[in-house]
Amino acid sequence: MKLVDRDVPGPRRDLVGYGASPPKVVWPDGASLALNFVVNYEEGSEYSKPAGDERNEGQGEFDYVMDDQYRDLGVESSYEYGSRAGVWRLLRLFDEYEIRSTFFAAGVALERNPDVGPWLARAGHEPCSHGWRWSEPWLFETREEEQQHMRWAIESIERTCGERPRGWFCRYSGSEWTRELLVEEGGFTYDADAVNDDLPYFTEVLGKRHLVVPYTYTYNDGRLIHKGSLGLSQFVEYCTRGIDELVREGRAGSPKMMSIGLHPRWMGQAGRTWALRQVIEHAKSENDIWIATRLDIAEWWLANPDSWS
Length: 309
What we know:
Helix content: 25-40%
CATH superfamily: Glycoside hydrolase/deacetylase
């Protein structure tokens, strides 16, 4: 008996990828690992009663779930911390270590804290669109509704950051339409709506070649928050062991990339920023790690096919 997949809308599954022989990538300066720090900047764009939503947001600082008939001031305040204090702590830390990161930024979050966009531009951080609001795209009722939100996100980020986003990352997952809309729009270099590889790869969308730069939830500060969470030292060890193992693979001839995901409302708390500092210093102690934005990685991949093909 052979299992045959149905022809359903959206991207086709690929369980093979590069297979047993991944490309022997040559990163800039012969780096053994391309490392990307990602800040998920969602604060102010999440679901809330003041924003006109009929539900409250989750993923604050605590597990308590308030009934949606009430306004959840506690969760709102947790998100406000990320915007008022946490994001600045992270940005100053990146300045201290001369790191250029990628901001998975919702357009409304940047609009509601207008000093953030100019800081990103000055420091060379990459604004990657995380939607207009921090919405679940599969809940849009029509393709046209998702397309409108995509246009709002592009216009919003261009206003606040001085440049349009060239990368795209949905909340959790794209819809069956998302990748097609990105290709139709034409101004995106890559999307990060996959967690299925340690290297960028091309896929075909609407007959065109499209670049995916996969993300990961593995090395993510959510590990410090959710049930069964890690302690600070465990998180540091978790990330640094991942770095060490990937560096070992790279030095053996198979370089990869790695993403470390952060949230201002979580990692922007001082004690957790200490943990991030340890991870950064560990990465900086190696002389063959390329710390880059996702756009840097995407542009390098497109410009150097002889390296990876």
